[in-house]
Structures are given as structure tokens and as C-alpha cells.
Amino acid sequence: MAIAKAERLMNLALCLMNTRRPLSKRELRESVEAYREAWANGSEDAFNRMFERDKDDLRELGLVIDVDENTLDGEAGYLARADRNRLPEIALDAEEAAALSLAAKVWQQARLSGAASGALQKLRAAGVPFSEGAPGTALEPYIPVREAAFEPLLLAARDRRPVSFEYRKAGAAETSPRSVEPWALECWRGHWYLAGWDRDRGASRVFRLSRIAGKVRSRQGAFTAPIPEHVDVRATVARFAGEGATATAIVKLRRGTAYPLRAKALTVAQLDADWDELTVPYGFGLDADLAEYGPDVVVLAPQELRAELIERLRAVAGLAEVGA
Predict the structure, then answer these.
(1) What is the pTM of this model?
(2) Is the peptide bond before 302 cis (omega within 30 degrees of 0)?
(3) DSSP state for residue 69 in the 8-state scheme
(4) Beta carbons within 10 angstroms of residue 236's beta carbon
(5) Is the pLDDT of residue 278 over 80?
(6) Contacts (Cβ under 8 Å, ≥6 apart) of 229
(7) Within 10 A of 250 (CB to CB), how many other CB atoms are there?
(8) Which residues contact 256 (CB under 8 A, 6 or more apart)?
(9) How far apart are the first and last CA of the chain?
(10) Nearest CA among 64, 69, 70, 68 for reference residue 83
(11) Which residues share a beta bridge with 193?
């Protein structure tokens, strides 16, 4: 069955690419043997369904098929113009080809493995000098993905489908519903993040996949917000983590605690036997990071950060009282 379909698609593609004028469905039916058999043994509807599926499959494979509604016999005509289906010459050096080969191997255990393998086959057919690598090579690329939300979000971003999920903010005790238009996923410092448009808040947001609870559900409809030409997830996460920030904050930290915060400190000074004073980069989301250390950290400046941290800690305490 697979061979028969592949042969039928090849014959249809050849008919569409080797004609100087648009061909109607009737003419294509007479030119492709499988269509003639379907029409003779079945019905006009059976042939029409087969033709529409084949046409969609060819377009998915990359063939540009033009439709001409103004043919001489009044029927729609179909044509794959050579100038619209000719790719420029592909020129990759050995290093570029090796990088593509390694990138394809990354996805060999994921759902994209078929697409990656197909892309390499097409490039090999075009003469790109891919090397299979020396036997026993120690270089084997691997991207660890533990979060169940990764694959549905990756497919939703690829297909431009809105999603919804339950999300727990840093320092929060409970989750809240989010409706998001996913743009891109990226790994930063061992964690996967999603960048997209938060419909409920009307702004772009970044979500850490490990904080997504339950299933990711697809939603109907198209995206409502424009997609940026370049989505730099790492830069956005770094800003929320305080990296690259131009402002600074001064905090009092209990001795022997919060080593990740100490690692980012610009200065550390001993106050007494129990407390140190740290100067740390101040960026978006620093209050959420500080809330994780509870009573071991006190914000001395600026006042807006101190107020944000107190408000966050009160919210967490309130949720804890309700749960009790």
C-alpha cells in the first residue's frame, strides 16, 4: 500500500511539473493510472477524495501547486511551475554538514526523528557531504527532557495552536490557569522554558516547564498576538533571574544559607556572627527567588523590592493558613 501511494504521488507530481498549462482533474484522472482505476471501480467521489488527499500530501512535502480557476473548459486547473519549485543550490562545507548531522541526531528519540532523518536524506540527495562519523565516536548529542509538557508544547508551537495549562509561579503554593500562545522553547541552565503570549494578562511571558502541572490542552482558533521575528528565551529568562541587570539590591543573609544567591553576589560583607550583607543584581523576578529562602533573607534596599517580597510572603502565608 505504501509503495502504491508513493508511486501515485510521484506520477501526480510528474504530471503537474511537466505541463505548460494547468491540467483539470479530469485530465489528471486520465493521466494517472491509479486515478483511472479508482474512478472505474468506485465513483467520482472516491476519485475526488483520493486526489484531494494526494494534493495535500504533495504540498506538505514542499511542492508548490498553483490553482487556475480560468481554464478553457471552465474547470479548475492545477500546475506546479518549475520556477516556483526550484531550490537554490545547497552549498555546505564539511563543518556545517557535520553540525546539521549532529543536530538531527539530537531528536532521534523524539517525535521529530522522522522529519530530521527525512531532511538529511534530501540534503544527501542534493550532494551535501554528510559523514556518518568514525566508529566508536564519543560524541553523542543528547538533550534531556523530563517534563511531560515538552512534547505537546513543542508541537503546539510548531503548528501555531493556542494551549492552556495549570502553572505554579515561583514561591506560590497553588497553581493558576494560563491560556498561552506558544512561540518557542529553549533550554537554559538545565531547565526548559516556554516563551509565548499570555492571553489572560495581555503580555509576553516565559514559563518554566517544571512548574506546569497536569496536562497541556490544545485550544481552537488562531493566534491573536503577532509573533516576534526573534524570540530570545534565554535573554528573557536571564532578565527575570537578575542576570545582565543594571540595578542592584542589598540584602541581609543568614550565614551558611542560600548558596545560589551568594554565587551571584557582587559583594559580600560580614555584619555579625549570624548575618552577611550582599549586593546582588536586581532584575525582574528577584522577589520570587528571595522568597524561596524564607526567614533567612531580609531586603535592605531598594524599598520596592522589599515591598514586593513582603507581599509575596504574606500571600504564601495566607494560602498556607487556608490549607491548614
Answers:
(1) 0.45
(2) yes
(3) S
(4) 18
(5) yes
(6) none
(7) 17
(8) none
(9) 62
(10) 64
(11) 186, 208
Q: Which residues contact 110 (CB under 8 A, 6 or more apart)?
A: 145, 151
Provide the pLDDT confidence category of residue 135 given band limits of 50, 70 and 90.
very low
- Note the pLDDT tens digit of each residue in 234-251: 776 666 555 556 688 999
Per-residue pLDDT tens over the stretch 3-33: 477 888 888 988 998 888 888 888 888 888 8
DSSP string for residues in 72-95: TTSS-EEE--GGGS-PPPP---HH
Residue 125 in this model has a pLDDT that exceeds 70: no
Of residues 127 and 287, more confidence is placed in 287
Contacts of 86 (CB under 8 A, 6+ apart): none
Residue 194 φ/ψ region, left for φ over 0, alpha for ψ in the -120 to 50 degree band, beta for the rest: beta
Picking from 170, 167, 210, the residue whose alpha carbon sits closest to that of residue 313 is: 170
- d(C-alpha 208, C-alpha 196), whole Å: 12
C-alpha cell at 172: 506560590
